[in-house]
Amino acid sequence: MGKKKPRPRRSFTPEFKAEIVKLCRRIARLMRNAGLQGRHRRRRQWTTIPDPGAA
Questions:
Q1: Is residue 39 part of a domain?
Q2: Which one of 16, 24, 36, 40 is CB 3.0 to 4.6 Å from 12, fit for a cystine?
Q3: Whole-model pTM?
Q4: What is the torsion angle, in degrees rounded to the nearest 10, for the CA atoms of residue 34, residue 37, residue 41 and residue 44?
Q5: Do 31 and 37 contact (CB within 8 A), yes or no?
Q6: In whole angstroms, what separates CA 7 from the centre of its chain?
């Protein structure tokens, strides 16, 4: 078997990166307000639950 060709590295615009940072900070603030700060494992578990409204 031959080696797989590596995928090209994706690049993102500074605007996109800034928007992601803003969204992450908003999520962190919402989690703190809900009393869920420091519970990273639970946060990760929630992100794997399928969204019922997405179907």
A1: yes
A2: 16
A3: 0.51
A4: 60
A5: yes
A6: 21
